[in-house]
């Protein structure tokens, strides 16, 4: 039995439920091979002995106040050539796409799309066998109002949320170190003292790591 295909225009709204993205406007481009999602603060980490990646996204165009914090199992790292001809190494994740009442898993590359018109680019690999594109139409599947967007994203407004900060030093009792810890906590940050004598850092351009006390990897800090 042939699967009924979703008919879309050149611009549509879709969602990624497992990433916590209730709706996002996408540019539908069958000329692009891969799909891309706007992402900032991209950082790989280890979870349950597997490679994962965490990132933040501003899902609404021209709105940097709304932020979603996402994490996903890492599928791959690939060199991708952008429409401008620039070659960039990107992290690749698998995500459940929901569009037109149907859902399926697609591969997405993560990149900063601030300079682009859309936070999401839906490429032909993600649509193969499932989607028909009418390039002259837009929003065949409907679009949310401004009020709808506010309601959907009301809990994701960027709050004055603290960071996880590690202080790398040798003496916890030193006055200057105490003051740094106190100042960070007063500003709402979660402060952790890391003894430099029990710690070493692996400085790698693609996968930096902090090892502590016999090889434990510290990968959940925002800053050291």
Task: Describe what this molecule looks like in 3D.
The structure is a single chain. The chain is mainly β and 224 residues long. It has 2 domains: 6-152, Beta Barrel (Cathepsin D, subunit A, domain 1); 164-218, Rossmann fold, CATH 3.40.50.20. The chain contains 3 helices and 16 strands. It has helices at residues 124-127, 146-152, 175-186, and strands at 6-9, 11-16, 21-28, 35-38, 40-47, 50-57, 68-81, 87-99, 102-111, 120-122, 131-134, 164-169, 190-195, 199-202, 209-212, 216-218. Strands 2-3-10-4-9-8-7-6-5 form a 9-stranded mixed β-sheet. Strands 14-15-16 form a 3-stranded antiparallel β-sheet, with no helix packed on it. The N and C termini lie far apart (56 Å). The relative contact order is 0.19.
Radius of gyration, CA atoms, in whole angstroms? 21 Å
User: Secondary-structure element sequence?
Assistant: EEEEEEEEEEHEHEHEEEE
Oligomer: single chain
Number of strands: 16
CATH class of the largest domain: Mainly Beta
Q: Please, what is the average pLDDT? A: 87
- Biggest sheet details: 9 strands, mixed
CATH fold type of the largest domain: Cathepsin D, subunit A, domain 1
SS content category: mainly beta
Strand percentage lies at over 45%
